[in-house]
Each structure stands twice: as C-alpha cells, then as structure tokens.
Amino acid sequence: MANMVRRHTTSARLWRTGLYTLLIVAALVYLLPLVVMLLTSLKPLDDIRAGGLLSLPSTISFEAWSKAWGSACTGMRCNGMSGYFLNSIAIVVPAVAISSFVGALNGYVLTKWRFRGANLCFALLLFGCFVPFQVVLMPMARTLGWLGLASSTSGLVLVHVVYGIAFTTLFFRNYYVSIPDEMIAAAKLDGAGFWRIFWRILLPVSGPIITVTVIWQFTQIWNDFLFGVSFAGFDSQPVTVALNNMVNTSTGVKEYNVDMAAAMIAALPTLVVYVLAGKYFVRGLTAGSVKG
Amino acid sequence: MSALNIRHVNKTFGSTQVLKDISLAIDSGEFLILVGPSGCGKSTLMNTIAGLEPVTSGEIRIGDDDVTWHTPSERDIAMVFQSYALYPSMNVRQNISFGLEMRKMPKAQREEAVSRVAELLKITPLLDRKPSQLSGGQRQRVAMGRALAREPQIYLFDEPLSNLDAKLRVEMRTEIKKLHQRLGTTIVYVTHDQIEAMTLADRIAVMRDGEILQLGTPHEVYNDPVDMFVAGFMGSPSMNFLPVTLVSHASGYALQVHDEEQGGTALTLPWPVERDTQELSARVGERLILGLRPEHFLEDDAIQEASGEGARLEVTATVVEPTGADTLLQAWLGGSEVTTRLGPKSRVVAGDRVVLRADLSRAVLFDEKTQRRLA
Amino acid sequence: MPSNVSAPASGERRHRRSLAGHIERVLPRLVIAPSLGVALFFVYGYMLWTFLLSLTNSRMLPQYDFVGFAQYARLFANERWHVAATNLVVFGGLFIVSCLVIGLLLAIFLDQRIRQEGTLRTIYLYPMALSLIVTGVVWRWLLNPGLGIQAMVRGWGFEDFTFNWLVDSDMAIYTLVIAAVWQASGFVMALFLAGLRSIDDSLFQAAALDGASLPRIYTRIVLPSLRPVVFSAVMILAHIAIKSFDLVMALTGGGPGYATDLPATFMYAHTFTRGQIGLGSASAIMMLCGVLAILVPYLYSELRGQRHG
Q: Do residue C141 and residue A259 have CB atoms under 8 angstroms apart?
C-alpha cells in the first residue's frame, strides 16, 4: 500500500503538471481569436499596419467601435451597424417569444393530453430539426412574396418561428415528460381544466426549461445568416448579414479595426448570454442535439 | 342506495383486457380496499372511477348520477396519490385551497376549510411552507388535507403509504383508520400490501388479471379464501400448501401427505368429522392441495388442554426466525418446506426435532387443477 | 333485480359525454393543429415543392415545364458541383474526426479533478455561442498572410514561415476546417464530458481494484460506454457540415475561384444569384438526401436500441 502511494506522488506529479500545461495551452488557443479581435478593435490603423497580431495597442482607441456602430459602410450605405443591430432585436424578440410559447403548449399537449396519433404528430414536428434549410429557401421566398412579407422584419419573424417550433417543442416535451402525470391528474380532480393546468400548475415549474429554450432560440436566431441573407431587404437585414457585407465592402481603405469592432458588436449579445447563463446554454445544446 | 356503483366495466388497452367485467357496489361510509399484485388492474380500476381513464364499456354511478362519461372535475371525487402529487410551486395553504378555488368557493370559506383540515391533520404550522420543505410524512398529510378540504362524496387512495418508511407507514395507517371512523367518509383504497388491506378495510376486493376474485370482509377473505391465489396472497408469512391424497379413514376421511423425495406417504392427517361434506365423498383417492396457515401449527407442549386435538407430527427445524412477538420456524414436511408460527416462548433452534400439531379444523382444501376451494 | 344489473349497450353511452368532456377531448388537438399544419406546409410541402422545381427548367423565376431529371444530369456533369461535393467530403471528414479527437481528449483531461474546471470549460465552449459569420470574419483576419499569423511569426524572426492557405486554392478548404473545429470542438467536449460524468464512479474503483491502469480503464471500459455519445456527436457534426454556409461566405466567400464551394453555397449561388433555380433545387434535394442518409440509420438504431433496452 505504501508502495502504491509513493508511486502515486512521484509519477503522478509529472502527469498532472503535463495535464495542466496541456489544458492551459488549449485554453489559450481557444481564446486567441477573441483576444486578437478585441485588441485589433482597440488599435489605431497605424498599429495594425505595423504588424504584430498580439501586440498591445500604442493607444487604446474606441474610434473603431464608434465608427463600426455609427458610420461604417456596408455596401452602399454608411450608417454603421446600429440600425442592423436594432433589426436583429426586432426579429429576435417576437420570434423567440412566439416560438417558445408555441413550443411550451405543444410540449404540454404531447405529454399531458396524449391523444391517438400524438407520437406520430411529434415525429412529424421533430423532423423540422433536421431538414437542411436549403430545401425550403425557394418556396419560402415565393410564399413571403405572396403574403406581402418579402424583405420585411415580420417575414423573418415568421420564418424563424416556423423553423424554431421543432426545437422548442422538443425541449418542452422532454422536460414535461419528467413532470409526474399524477400532478396533472390531481389538478384535474381539483377541477382545473386544460388552460388552468397549463398556467397555474405547469408554467410555474417550467423556469429552467423556459430559460434553456429562450437562450437556445435567441442564439440561433441572432446568429442566423442564411434566412437573413435570403429573405431580408436593405432595411430589414440582421446584424450578421450587415457584418458580412461590411467586411466584404471593397471600396476605400480596408479598416481592419472597424471590421473587428463590428464583429465584436455582432458577437456581444450572445457572448454576454453565454457568460451569464452558460449552464443553460450547454443544457440546451446537449438537450437539443443528443436526445430526440 | 350505494355511494358508488360499478357495473360490468371493461377496459382494454390495444389487445390486452385489463379490466374484465368488473361489478362492484360500495355503500356510503364504507372503506373498500382493492388489493392484488402489480398489474392486476387495481390502479386502472381506480383511474376509471376517477375519470382519468375512459372505460371501454360498462357504467359507473356515483350516488344517483351516471358519471361514466364525466370528466374528472365533474365527478365529486378527491384522490390521494402515491407520489402525493403536490403542486411544487404552491405552498401548503395554496395546495389545499386550489381545488376549492377551482370550484369557485368564496375566499372566506376557503380559509375556513383550510384551517379546519389543517387542525384535523395537525399541519397548521406548515401552511406557509412549500412541498419541497416538507418531510415525506408531512407531504402525505398535506395530500390528505387537499382531499379532505373538498369534502367530496368519494375519496380515492392510490397506495398512499408505500413511499413512507415502515414506522411512519404504521402510524399513518392508524391515523387514516381514525379519520375514517370519525368522518364516516366513503373510501376506495388501492394497495398491494395485504396487511394494510386487512387492517383498514370494511371490505376487501382481491384482484388478479383484471378480475375480482373475491369480495368480502377481511375476516372472510382471510379465513374463507375462494381459491389458492387469494389464500396465498392474504397473510404473511403465506399459507403453506401441501399436496395430499384424500382417503377414507375410519368413519370419515384422512389426508395422506406425500413424501416427494422418497415416495409414498410421509404421514396421514385425519380430517375433522364435523367438516365432512358431500363434495369430499366424490373426491376420495384424488390428489388435493391442503392449505395450512403458519398459525395453524402448534408446538406440542404448548397445549396441554387441547392435546388430544389435531394431528401430531414430528419435524426437523431448518430455519428459526424469532421476530420478538412470535417465532417463525421452517421445517420439511413431506417434500415441502412449511412455515409455522410458534409462540414467543419457544426455545427451538435450527436442527432440533420438534413435535407439532396441525389444527385441521381451520385448514382448507383446494382442487389441484382449478385451484378452487373445496372445503 | 337481475334486469337492473345487465350491461347496457356500450355504443349509446358515447353520446353521454358532457360539454366539458367534449372540449377536453378536442382542445388538445386544436392546440397542436396549427403547429402540425405549419410543419406539413412549411417543411413537407416545401420539400415536395423544391423537388418539383428540381424537375423543371426554372431559371430566374420558378416555372413548371417539367424536364424530368435533366437538372440532376446537369448537376452531376457540373464541374463546380463536383468540387463542392468533394470539398464536403474532405471538409466534413476532417471536421468530424478532428472535433471528436480534440473533444474527447479535452473531456478526458478535464475529467481528472481539475482545478478551475468550470473556467476552462467555459473557455473551450464559448466559440459555440458565436455566429459563424463572426468566426469567419475573425479567422479571415488571423489567416490573412500579410497581417495575420504568418506576419506575426515572421515578425518573431522566422522569415521563411509561410501560412498562406487562405489564398492557396489547394489549401483554402483546410482553413474552413480549422475555423469550424475551433468553433465546434468545445461542444463535442461538453457532450463527452456529460457522457463521462454519467459513468458510475464505482466502475472506475472496481477496475482499479482489479489492477487496471488508467489508460487501460479508459480504452477498455470508458470508451466503449461512450459509443452512443460518439454516435450522436458524429450525427450532429455531419449535419453541421452539410448545412455549412455561413462560415464559407464569411471566411473564403467560396474562393479562391470556387475552390472552397460547398453544396450549401453552390445551392445559394445558383438559386439566388445565377438564375438557375432548377439546378439549385436539384442540389438542395441532393443535400436533403445527404441528411437523410445520415439520419435514417441513426434513428433506426436509436429506436431499435430503445426497443431492446
């Protein structure tokens, strides 16, 4: 036994030092792009031209940030990211709210008011999680045109709600399955009906899954590019599309610090959510992808 | 008039029939227990009474009303669940008054009802706590309080004590019995625990495979079981079953206990003359099953006065289990191992030769094939 | 009174359901109906619609003069589609394998009672919260030969160092792999870590008492029990790879030339900018087939596993 303990202390110390070194180096590699992005966004353009990806800025300047926010050019226009940032908010807020609410109701029905064909119904809905969106782009573009929603914010809200329901339903269903049916039976015997059970019994215990779903939907919709670039007009472009346009604008001097500031602006909302509620973010990722 | 009347209820899930033509009437104020092994349909029957599952055919009446197709909330029923099913987001007070609120009872009356049942169940200090802050026993009381506050026509209890530890279970059992005696409520109670069934019930319905095998008072079910299943299910330790052959003997009959190992007859037990029936005469020479409960064996020197009665038999104790209140002894009799219950004073240890007497006046006989009771 | 007890015909009873009973029966279906309708139209209907378009000669605008499978023949004769499909295999294969290896190693290392495990986990996983457009923009900057990593290393004195994959049409596809692995490997790590944590500790203790060394415990006991996690990780990563669009648009724009085209960018370019809706639809259907080719065996084994378990 003593022998074993000794072996533990000598060779294991080496192993643990190596382990920590490896993990820390890996962490630095993962952090590098974010650090570079932040440093570059704070540098004057001259610093950048002088080279040194990781060198600290000679003077910290928020000029690039204010330009990216208010006056940088995306394609033809030079109003910065602010308008597109607001567009993204105008798309995200209603789309997240509606898709989460519908998902909660669907999950409630599919677990607590099971009817014949409920499983088939769930399977049909679930496939929406897997369909490659390229298959729906052209028909959706036509439909939005007919509905008079082409190039509009409402059109994008509709698109995100339609293709978000599959995920939100999955989340809520998997959560509500774990809530005992006896609780619902008790409420029925107590005299509560369909809606009262939902509002008074189920929703008050849904805090965690609402958080998971809202964060998931928020990240998905905020980060969306495909729907934005396919269906948005000039006035309704989300921030991701604007960022891509700005970076690809080839007129004039290439202002890398402004590009990086714009990228930071586009990334900040989801990063903040991730830092504040990482636990729920991870839960959404794993729940949304591991189990069907 | 019956408080609850179940007529020819059938229930099928897909191709399996879980309730087979169940008919049952319960009087007002009666305590009925549905007992049986898991999967016997007792919980399904309870759920159909509550309206949580529709019947496939048949009729359910509460009082004068046909409620077969009423929703759970339209039936005047309250239920206590195995998991208690308290609403986790509400405190105890809200849990108890939720049903009253749903039935649009004015606030003042609701508060009165809550304090009434809280006092009855001694949970007044807990009223502002959430269910997560309560112990198992306290949750159980709150669940009962929620049912009692409603004052429904019928109470359903679905294995309400099986999540409690042994000591608490006995306490709550007594408490439920007291409550029933005091309030005179009509109760249908599901359990798989035959001791709960024996101690609580006015009447017991023993179920198996979707059928009620026997419906009767605890005394009837225990002493006059209709078949081997009921006989074996009720009572702990279980009734001993011995394969025997019925023979004519002197003026009456006797039972030859088979020796399964060496063949032949291990011993012969005389059948009490007063229990001769017409039916037995037709069965002479047939193999039957003799049912003897553990307490039907007596240690020979423990009974001086009744020493002439019963059949004397000598066995070797294989296992001795003193429980304190009495001593359980296992021994080989013929080819079967039998369990006997001896008095607490017994000093038998494993390996001893013990002389026992089997009290055949309370023994039962079954047909070997149909397992139905013969005598 | 035996006549009282006889069973009434069950059929007539069904009509006795109360109003509330009827509502309770119908309401749940009514609530789910809109979602089901939406799925039927916007998912299944659109799949059919796109399939129909792929059978037509549609160019700038959808039209319905059917030409059979001519667009598929054109697609498979198309050099650019071949590049895109080959790229998907290369990109997808490297992306999946790299993510699995890195994710698994990080998870195993993190599972050794590491101090600050939470911080490290947060760092490995944060890229997953970013938009792929942001990822593309950042890596485009890092991989820029004139000002990025190449310039930085040269600045340290290694004058001959070259890392110009972004502008090299043979190597540009690997820049996509690097950026995508950076983004998704932390997520795979999280999956594996969850899988490792669900393994009973007593398994480790029992194996250690049996005299198994740590690497042996991992290869013989832990890895086999992680097989379902590997399975679902592969499935998710393959799905991400097939749908990859944003990253290509932001990092390489499909270039140089069309060297880094993927099916998703091919589809978008032909449908929306090159006025080849028929051909674009055919490529979209091929993508759907790709997803189904992964999904169907996965679901099959999942369902079978459930039945056996």
A: yes
